[in-house]
Design brief:
two-stranded antiparallel sheet, single chain, 156 residues, 6 strands, alpha+beta, four-stranded mixed beta sheet
Length: 156
């Protein structure tokens, strides 16, 4: 099954910039969406800002939120260390500047989110980045299960 992961302003009600990435997955999108929420709660960090799936009462520009605000393309040291410890950054290119971390490219950012989701999927979960076409979105586009923006701050 191939699903679309969107980074940025998919609803085009802010800066209107976004990138779409397709992933070929061996589980259905409903399980993937729930796994995102479960990983947020498990690790206490998130890539979205509307709903607090961590259940920690996160506030505006919290160090536990990643890429959620305009021109917010960095990852805090706290969130970076959580992602690194859990293996989400394996095979992801990044660099550090003044205690903040940056991922090298939008496709790498999308893969990082999928690595994050994979933490709450069954062990046989597989996903692979594929060529662009129009498929069911994992996030955004007004779906009832995960109507969230990821990576809003990556674009400016």
């Amino acid at each position: 099954m191939i699903y679309k992961l969107t980074l940025g302003d998919w609803s085009e009600d802010g800066h209107g910039q976004y990138r779409e990435f397709l992933f070929d997955c061996n589980y259905d999108v409903h399980k993937i969406r729930q796994a995102y929420k479960d990983s947020c709660k498990k690790l206490g960090i998130s890539f979205n800002h509307n709903s607090d799936y961590t259940e920690l009462g996160l506030r505006f520009r919290d160090e536990r939120q990643i890429w959620t605000e305009y021109e917010d393309e960095n990852i805090s040291e706290f969130a970076f260390n959580v992602l690194k410890t859990e293996g989400c950054l394996d095979n992801i290119d990044y660099h550090e500047e003044d205690g903040e971390y940056f991922i090298e490219g939008y496709s790498e950012c999308a893969i990082l989110i999928m690595n994050f989701i994979a933490l709450s999927m069954p062990n046989d979960f597989e996903y692979k980045l594929v060529e662009k076409e129009d498929y069911e979105p994992i996030n955004g586009w007004w779906n009832d299960e995960l109507n969230e923006q990821f990576g809003y701050g990556l674009f400016y």
